[in-house]
Amino acid sequence: MKTRLILILTFIISAHSAFAANIFRHRAEPSDSTQILFIGNSYTYYNRLPDIVKNLAASVDMKLAPSYSLKGGETLKGHLETDYMLKTIADGGFDYAIIQEASYTPSYPTAYVVENVYPYAHQLDSLVKAGSPNAKIIYYMTWGHKNGIVHHKTDYPLNKTYKGMQDRIALTYLEMAHDNGGMCAPVGLAWERVVTERPDINLYAKDNYHPSLEGSYLAGCTILSTILGRPFTSDYYAGLPKATALYLQNVAGETVTANRPLLNLP
């Protein structure tokens, strides 16, 4: 009885520590579903983005089994220093890997990105392919903060506004995909279109950089359109009004279709 109590307390403490550190990890069981690995941070775990992608896929008769290694604020370099992440990648069995860098580093000056982002994207890409030789890598392009860079500010003038930050992030992700022979999910490009066309749809959470439910839904639609290589229509709305959900689906699909060569889609 005493041993059981100690084990229960240990589990509770471990779970609390993981939650407090905003760490979310899960390995899907082997199945006939398409195995997809999400590597990222809060931009991926907000509103349970892996589940949104899974539910959207199910609605168009595609079975996805998401695994994920997510930690708030984590960089690609940080993921490469995590034993769980390295073991998960080495164990393999993945059909897709969705790679997402911290929200701010891709918007930094080119010299910084070349030294501190690209090499770690390449390392992750190589490790995923070593463990899962047939895996397709998708770089999850994020978006500019609503009022320009919020965290880890520098004196770099190009990321001081939403538009400037968005342009820098887009370039970084497109280059990561191009340099590694992967694909790019153009969430940031779709985001920019919604911001311009429909300012009544708030894609941001209250902090003005994390995604609202609408923002996460748009990200999920864009990622699935990238996987499918085409637009889709779904009756899964994630609790959003039907008209809003269908509009976001449409924007995601059109953004992918209009930028196929840029996104390195087959």
* Average pLDDT score: 92
Biggest β-sheet description: 6 strands, mixed
Identify the strand order in the major beta sheet.
1-3-2-4-5-6
H/E series: HEEHHEHHEHHEHEHHHH
Structure summary, number of beta strands: 6
Q: Share of helix among residues?
A: 40-55%
Helix and strand composition category? alpha/beta
**What is the radius of gyration?**
18 Å
Which segments are poorly predicted (pLDDT under 50) over 5 or more consecutive residues? Answer: 1-20
Bin the strand percentage: 5-15%
Q: Count every helix, treating DSSP H or I runs of 4 or more residues as helices.
A: 12
How far the N terminus sits from the C terminus, by CA atoms, comes to: 58 Å
Question: In one word, what is the shape?
Answer: globular
What's this entry about, in short?
This protein is α/β, with parallel strands linked by helices and 266 residues long.
Question: Could you characterize what this model shows?
Answer:
This protein is an alpha/beta fold. It has twelve helices and six strands. A six-stranded mixed beta sheet has the order 1-3-2-4-5-6, sandwiched between helices. Strand 5, helix 8 (162-180) and strand 6 (183-185) form a beta-alpha-beta unit. Helix 7 packs across helix 8 (162-180) and helix 10 crosses helix 11. The chain is globular, with a radius of gyration of 18 Å. The relative contact order is 0.12. Mean pLDDT is 92; it is low at 1-20.
Task: From the structure above, extract its key features.
single chain; 266 residues; alpha/beta; 6 strands
